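Moderator note: this is an archived Q&A kept for reference. The question asked for a predicted structure of one protein chain; the sequence and the answer are reproduced below.
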Amino acid sequence: MSNILSSLMREHYDDYFFALNHIREICQEITLSGLWRSGFFNSMAFHGGTALRIIHGLNRFSEDLDFCQINKRYPDMNTASRSVEKEFESLGLDFRMIPRKKRSDNITGYYVEGNTSKTMRTCGLPDSISNAVDLNAKIRIKIDIDTDTPEGFGLEHEFRTIPFNYGVTILDKPSLFAAKTSAVISRHWKNRIKGRDLFDFEWYINNKTPVNTTYLINNLRRDELLNKESTEDDILEVLRDRFESIDYGSALSDIRTYVDVNDIPQNWSPDHFIDLSNKIVFI
């Protein structure tokens, strides 16, 4: 058992799904630490829901690690992979970082994965939880790297001391909000949407985060949803049309395994999100 890992689990033993989500989150931060040690963040920025969760305290769990390229340099991913694996090894965990098939020309992907049951035991979870897991089940963290980042983003540099000492380059909050708003508009199939995108969109509004207008428009231009002459009113119109077409029941089903039952929204509707969008502060 790793004393560091078992101390991080604290009170998260009794509920299987909460314990598994918490272990996944620890593994995400081990991965970030390994990437940082390899120099990965000299040319990449952290963004997406997990960035919002880990760095800014979003009140939901998140699965993937998303990064975007911020200059013309590209990290040596063999070095990055070895560094991540060594970081896990230093804590008594056997994880591997492996390439996965590209889903598009501008997205490069990896998996960081290790045995679930062994990881639970190393983290000090009782047998009543670790024995409930299929012996071949894997914790798998998906990494997406966007190599065609639109212009106009802002950056911050954050250093973490809990649970591990490591640093990240991250899009600033207005740019994170811009990327999330773009996802709300463009990432859908028919009338379905990731409820997690809506949850995060509402978080930004409630936390009075302004949106990086230039970066938002450039994201939507890349997806051919706006053009360079588009205005803030055009953005609001696109959002209004989007919110009127969403299946909110499906969206709520998407978030149930990521949030505490007390945090599941009760008021999602077209009018609710249109009202939220009218509160956006464009900068």
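Archived answer notes: The chain has two domains: 3-171, 173-277.
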